[in-house]
Design brief:
The two termini are about 25 Å apart. Strands 1-2 form a two-stranded parallel sheet. The chain has one domain (about 20-230, about 255-480): Up-down Bundle (Growth Hormone, Chain: A), CATH 1.20.1250. It has helices spanning about 20-45, 45-55, 65-75, 80-110, 115-130, 135-150, 155-165, 170-200, 205-225, 245-255, 255-285, 290-320, 320-340, 350-360, 370-375, 390-415, 425-455, 455-475, and strands at about 5, 475-480. The protein has 18 helices and two strands. Helix 11 runs parallel beside helix 17.
Length: about 475
């Protein structure tokens, strides 16, 4: 396998300016905000969905074929129909995005970024409108699938930034896009829960709010965003298929691109598992409820915004992407291992009886997704309370957020430099697809490990996985010669 080259330290200290990318940056802040609204709405509305579609006659009121499938789940796998449906609903979006992103990425290489970005945004709008008007489970699933299939908006916007930056500024540009995730991490849950609160927990309302934001982004794209991929740089082909599984197999099995894509997938397994299991871990280990976990997630969001919005640009110019990848993997690995051994000491205000009463009406924790939402969690005793456990986890989360914050932009930056300009969209589409696959897989596998091996195991295994990734990264990612 060829070595992967990164930018040199000779570029340190140079100013960064990419005005052509600014409209795309603003748009992606909105786009990522919508994605986080969607994620947190789905996590927050599990109870209303159950009341809407499983009350007043229960599952029997749904389509006969659906009843047959869900009864099979209950007989063969031991899941209740409600739990199986909620889990499948949560997985529908990332699975659909895993399928759709590479195809749409290749289309953007051929037809330009703007038309594909508009098409994907229209799909997002249609998905939110359908979700808002859904009165059956089939419509609910259809809304999620449409939104997922059109989910190339992120990778296409990343391609716009790649087109609008050079090799010296690309990591910072992609980092700023990542900062939009951090903003969505903070603002998305607020909008979702406000919408649920003012509507009496009606899940249709936040969906329509998100649709309004989506419509605004479409107008901004149409009238503000300029095409970033000129016709002479596009892929020109007479093939009927824009994407083939042979191309996917080649990308995943040869050269530096294969290693970077694998690195993207496995680091997201670890970091995505950390995100989606953190609330369960802190409930089990510290006795933190939804509001306590919300504070932790806002704290993580602010760290990620600071890292990706500012520090990654400084660090990439001073040290190069190799340093960012190795340090990111190392920080995330060490922090996950340390987090796994968080002391079993609940927060001072914890009461087991009060927590049991709070959870009796259903659990809806920040960051938790449907695959783990109904997973039983053992509550800690309230005999040992203090600040040690909370202090430990807050400190260890800082390197976790820094490591996770630098990895994705650095890896994507190197991916765009490892392929020709006419393949950037397709390659970033593959990256987004693997990211979605990891996000779908992480809570499923993490939940199984959490239940079977205990709360320590998922974080410990994630940290060890990243440590193993560090070794080939140290060997395969080398520093490039200084640019003139």
């Amino acid at each position: 396998m060829n070595s992967i080259q990164t930018s040199s330290t000779a570029d340190r200290g140079r100013s960064i300016a990419f005005p052509g990318a600014r409209p795309a940056l603003v748009l992606l802040i909105l786009i990522n905000l919508f994605n986080y609204i969607d994620r947190y709405v789905l996590a927050a509305v599990v109870k209303p969905i159950k009341q809407t579609f499983f009350g007043e006659g229960g599952l029997a009121s749904q389509d006969g074929a659906l009843v047959t499938v869900m009864n099979w789940f209950e007989r063969r796998l031991g899941f209740t129909p409600e739990d199986a449906l909620i889990g499948l609903l949560g997985a529908a979006y990332p699975i659909a995005q895993f399928i759709g992103a590479p195809f749409l990425g290749r289309l953007s290489d051929r037809f330009g970024r703007k038309p594909i970005l508009l098409a994907s945004q229209l799909g997002t709008l249609a998905g939110f409108l359908l979700l808002g008007g859904a009165n059956s489970l089939w419509l609910l699933f259809l809304a999620r699938i449409i939104d997922g299939l059109s989910g190339a908006n992120i990778s296409t916007a990343q391609a716009v930034i790649s087109d609008s930056t050079n090799e010296k500024t690309r990591t910072q540009g992609l980092g700023l896009l990542g900062a939009a995730f951090g903003l969505g991490f903070i603002i998305g849950p607020i909008i979702a829960f406000i919408g649920l609160a003012i509507s009496g927990n009606d899940f249709h309302v936040p969906a329509f709010i998100a649709a309004g934001f989506s419509a605004l982004s479409i107008l901004m794209t149409q009238f503000w965003l300029k095409e970033s991929l000129p016709a002479e740089k596009r892929t020109h082909t007479d093939r009927k298929r824009e994407f083939s599984f042979a191309e996917l197999r080649t990308a995943l099995t040869s050269g530096p691109v294969a290693f970077l894509l694998a690195l993207m997938f496995f680091q997201q397994i670890a970091f995505g598992g950390f995100e989606q299991l953190l609330s369960l871990f802190t409930l089990n280990r510290l006795g933190l409820d939804a509001s306590g976990n919300a504070v932790i997630f806002v704290f993580i969001g602010f760290v990620i915004v600071a890292v990706q919005g500012y520090f990654i640009g400084v660090w990439s110019r001073k040290f190069g992407e190799r340093w960012l990848i190795l340090v990111g993997l190392g920080l995330l690995a060490v922090s996950l291992v340390l987090m796994a051994f968080t002391p079993h000491q609940t927060v001072p205000w914890y009461s087991r009886a009060a927590m049991q009463q709070e959870l009796s009406s259903g659990r809806s924790l920040p960051g938790e997704t449907p695959p783990t939402q109904n997973m039983p969690v053992q509550l800690p005793d309230d005999t040992s309370r203090g600040w040690l456990g909370l202090s430990w986890i807050m400190i260890t989360m800082i390197p976790a957020a820094i490591g996770g914050g630098v990895l994705q932009p650095s890896i994507n930056s190197l991916l765009t430099r490892s392929v020709g300009a006419d393949k950037i969209g397709g390659t970033l589409g593959l990256s987004a697809a693997l990211l979605s696959g990891a996000n779908a897989f992480a809570p499923l596998m993490g939940g199984i490990i959490f239940q079977s091996l205990g709360s320590t195991a998922p974080f410990l295994i994630g940290g060890l996985l990243l440590a193993l990734l560090w070794l080939p990264s140290n060997r395969l990612v080398i520093q490039a010669p200084a640019r003139a």
